[in-house]
Specification:
- The protein is an alpha+beta fold and 494 residues long.
- It folds into 3 domains: 138 residues, Immunoglobulin-like (Sandwich), CATH 2.60.40.1120; 108 residues; 146 residues, 3-Layer(aba) Sandwich (Glutaredoxin).
- Helices cover 44% and strands 19% of the residues.
- The strands form 4 sheets. A 5-stranded mixed beta sheet has the order 13-12-11-14-15. Strands 4-1-7-8 form a 4-stranded mixed beta sheet, covered by helices on one side. A 4-stranded antiparallel beta sheet has the order 3-2-5-6.
- Strand 2 and strand 3 form a beta hairpin.
- The longest helix is centred in the N-terminal third of the chain and has 29 residues.
- The termini are far apart.
- The N terminus is likely disordered.
């Protein structure tokens, strides 16, 4: 059903003024129980149709029914539906319509699906009539936007460029006025909640065109502070739309700094505002936990540990399946154990000669630099020879050894060996972690061999002492090189 999601999102994200007359009963609640939605979906006949709602970006089925000879059916239930964005589509995905479900859940949809367009009308649903007017207006504006953008891209004349840019700004300004008029006239509607959720921060005039790094930093700060303006986290209706999910993703991947303190502060603020809604707390916590665990959000270990200690360790949730809870607990415990001063986890993998090499059983060097890399990673290809030059010139003499783990992705063993030989890295201890090794380890133990190291970027560096205890972990090249050089200089000055 991606085509429906695409249409829904594009119409909401278009950016103008349209007068909508107030309609009686817009805020009235439905006096009848349950729901009853009559659907006329032409030209489909004698086929199954699905009623589904969004939860995040996923569609979840509520009911199925069969269109009769006249393309008509009725969806009916004794319990209320969640308020949110819904879709009715034929089971073969040939066509469908999206609409809003609010407190009034007894209404009719009359739609006709063409090859390139559709007509849709509603009876007894003022919120959907408002949505229809909004979509119609945005569709007209899209034509103008596409036209001006096309002409702007083609022109080489500065005067024409300025004209097209000005026209696009006028369209955008009118769209913002239109959206604001809806929010003012119909503050309690689901459509208003959606438009507020979609609103992007608009920096003050003096920051519209940043002139230097100070201005750019001010824009980033303004965006972070005002990103959630107009969004009420207690409003569970937002969960049943495709928009909140993407807005959270953008917030933690593009807006909030990845530094531990910044991420933790924003997580706690968000959870503090979402606590009024059990549904919203569930959605956000689940998203944050598994987004961190699977590295969608590129946070360092302390962020996940904070999430675990504050929101999982001494709490239970009806939505958290015991197996999922076990995975989260084990992962958090692994990260907590994998901290400074604790013993490194064993890595035992085939080396250059095919025989297994052991991290914990390797040389009794004063220090071991543990390197995770990928032979297809361009940054790794550039960094490792530079690192080796420092190793040869200074580090090896000071008692450092290198244990390098090549993690297979698009490469293979021959490429790995060829790279090592071409760059004369044979003095290191090398091991190769193949996809087959990963599958075998997962089947035997339920987790990957390298999972305790929580590596999600390459190259990554860990520094171990003589007892193979962590001194520093998951650093990039320059911070690790600086640390090693400072250790050596300190020893020389003693």
């Amino acid at each position: 059903m991606n085509y429906i999601l695409k249409i829904t999102i594009s119409l909401f994200y278009l950016s103008a003024a349209f007068c909508i007359k107030a309609q009686a009963g817009l805020y009235a609640t439905d006096p009848e129980g349950g729901y009853e939605i009559t659907v006329l979906l032409k030209p489909f006949k004698n086929c199954k149709v699905v009623l589904a709602h969004y939860y995040g970006t996923n569609l979840q089925t509520d009911a199925t029914a069969t269109l009769d000879e006249n393309s008509k059916t009725i969806f009916k239930g004794t319990s209320k539906l969640h308020e949110g964005i819904y879709v009715v589509y034929d089971e073969s995905s040939r066509g469908g319509v999206d609409f809003l479900v609010d407190t009034n859940q007894h209404f009719s949809i009359m739609a006709e699906i063409g090859d390139h367009d559709q007509t849709i009308d509603f009876h007894n649903s003022t919120e959907n009539e408002l949505l229809k007017a909004y979509k119609r207006f945005m569709a007209f504006k899209e034509v103008d936007i596409v036209s001006y953008r096309t002409q702007l891209a083609a022109t080489t004349n500065d005067s024409d460029s300025a004209f097209y840019i000005h026209q696009l700004k006028l369209i955008n300004d009118s769209i913002q006025l239109f959206r604001e008029s809806i929010r003012v006239k119909y503050p309690a509607t689901l459509l208003t909640a959606l438009l507020s959720a979609l609103k992007e921060p608009d920096p003050p005039a003096h920051l519209q065109n940043p002139k230097d790094s100070t201005d750019s930093a001010a824009v980033r700060y303004y965006t972070k502070v005002h990103y959630w303006d107009g969004v009420d986290f207690w409003d569970g209706r937002l969960l049943y739309t495709p928009f909140l999910n993407g807005k959270i993703d953008k917030y933690f991947t593009e807006i909030v700094e990845r530094k531990t303190d910044s991420a933790v502060k924003q997580i706690d603020w968000m959870m503090g505002t979402a606590v009024a809604s059990e549904e919203m707390s569930h959605f956000i916590l689940e998203k944050l936990f598994f987004g961190a665990m699977y590295h969608q959000f590129k946070w360092d270990d302390p962020v996940f540990i904070h999430l675990y200690e504050k929101y999982i360790a001494d709490k239970t949730y009806p939505w958290l399946h015991p197996e999922d809870r076990k995975r989260l607990v084990e992962y958090a415990q692994t990260l907590m154990a994998n901290s400074k001063g604790t013993k490194a986890y064993e890595i035992s993998l085939p080396g250059l000669n095919g025989q297994k090499e052991s991290l914990l059983g390797s040389s009794n060097a004063k220090y071991t630099l543990l390197v995770f890399w990928d032979v297809t990673c361009s940054h790794c290809q550039e960094t490792l020879p530079v690192l080796d030059s420092l190793y040869q010139a200074k580090w090896e003499k000071a008692g450092f050894k290198i244990f390098a783990v090549s993690v297979e992705s698009d490469g293979n063993r021959p490429m790995w060996k060829e790279y090592i030989k071409a760059h004369h890295l044979e003095e290191w201890t090398h091991v190769y972690y193949s996809m087959a090794d990963e599958r075998e380890q997962a089947e035997k133990t339920g987790q990957r061999m390298l999972q305790p190291y929580n590596v999600w970027y390459y190259p990554s560096f860990y520094l171990l002492d003589q007892d193979k205890r962590f001194m520093a972990k998951k650093l990039s090249y320059q911070p690790m090189a600086d640390l090693i050089n400072s250790i050596i200089n300190k020893k020389q000055n003693q």
